[in-house]
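Hello,

Our lab assistant flagged a job as stuck in the queue for most of the afternoon. It eventually completed. Since we weren't sure the result was trustworthy after the delay, we are filing this so someone can double-check. Below is the sequence as submitted and the structure that was eventually returned. Let us know if re-running is recommended.
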Amino acid sequence: MDFNVKKLVKDAGTALSRVVQLTEEKLGTSEKTELDAHFEFLADRADATKNWTEKILKDEEAMLTPNPGNRIEDFFFEKIDKKKPNRLSNLEYVGIDMIEAGNDFGPGTAYGSALIKVGQCQQKLGQIERDFIGTAANCYVQPLRKFLDGEMKTISKERGILETKRLDLDASKNRVKKARSMLGQQNAERELRVAQSEFDRQSEITKFLLEGVSSSQAGHLRCLHELVEAQARHYAQCHAVMQDLQRELAGMSGATFHSSTPPSPSAPAENGQDRARVVCNYEARDPSELSLIQDEVICVTEIQGDGDYLMGTRGNQQGKVPKAFLEPIVSH
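-- returned structure --
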């Protein structure tokens, strides 16, 4: 191997002089060129943006992929530019086992049939979850990671170059002060002008990049809106699937479905009570009333002397409910 000894010695000398210079600055025995207040503000904002983006990205990745082993595996697949493995979600694993258990117990039995239906629902929820994870990764996680790996790394690199230029400038200023001869003074002043020019140029480049952080935050805001929309669709789809499941279970002969939140739409009629389906949500106005959720089924009885309200019963909960929010279910 060929070594450039002169360059090696020069670099070592430069590094040593940098250490001495930084030490003198900390001790206050050497002059230090300060950046303007606006530049410092931009730099602080960039640092805060980088730190918070890293934390949010880490939290978002943990939320979308809770298993740390899977996250590490995904990281390596990205580094070798390979497609990530298509894993089943926990919900899908539960669904598979429920369906197998239902088939084993017998699809003709009440419990076996219910297990199969619930298992199929779990598989649907798992697929919805995987779709959401993919959408969230594309619309939010990837843009944040691209920002950190691209723009922020460039900013860090340019700020490092600026620091080097500042040290060169301050060293040139010290040489001007220490020059003893006229020729030495002229040479030192010429080096100072060059160092000042390079510092100013690098300062403008770095400031331009720092000002671009505002545009990046505006882009992150758009990505955040997309994430919220995707999450809203995700929960709406899950809610719709669960409502369908509740209706299916309610219509199954011999099936009993118990739930407290949300209430079951298959509330059985007891003691001669009638049943009614809720046509839209209703929020109780006082403790004597019962809040309602659209499409649930509750038991109702007449309230003597009150033509506008019925007495609604849901499990252990009971309260008045307006007739206008209910659709009677005719027993066959």
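-- support follow-up --
The delay was a queue issue, not a problem with the job. The result is valid. The chain is about 65% helix and 10% strand. The first helix runs from residue 5 to 27.
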